[in-house]
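Homework help board

Subject: predicted structure for assignment chain

Our instructor gave us this sequence and asked us to write out the predicted structure in token form, then describe one feature. I got the tokens but I'm not sure how to describe them. Can anyone check?
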Amino acid sequence: MKISNINLILMLTSGIIVGIIGIYYNYPLDRLTYTLLIVLILFYIIGTVLGILLNKVISSADNEEKSPEDSEEENQDEELDMDEAEEEMSINGEDNVVSEDSL
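My token output:
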């Protein structure tokens, strides 16, 4: 899952809050405009960085979830290879038993 619009949501939400506060406290229009511009730019940058970090965390979590499944499949493949090798040895009559005397 990729997070793509968090920067826009964060920016617009902060802009609405600043606008409401500015109107409530009767800020002059030029001061409100500059404040709103700075807040929008600042929260757009913060939202972009936050979106990148969240995407990295989500992708690393997805990779970790896939790794145990991959390792289980590899273990099953190794077990199957060992079983096939044992069957082949028994078919060929090879006996690899080590006696205590040879040690």
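Reply (TA_rk): Your tokens look well-formed. For the description, you could write something like this. The chain has one domain: 6-90. That's the kind of observation they're looking for.
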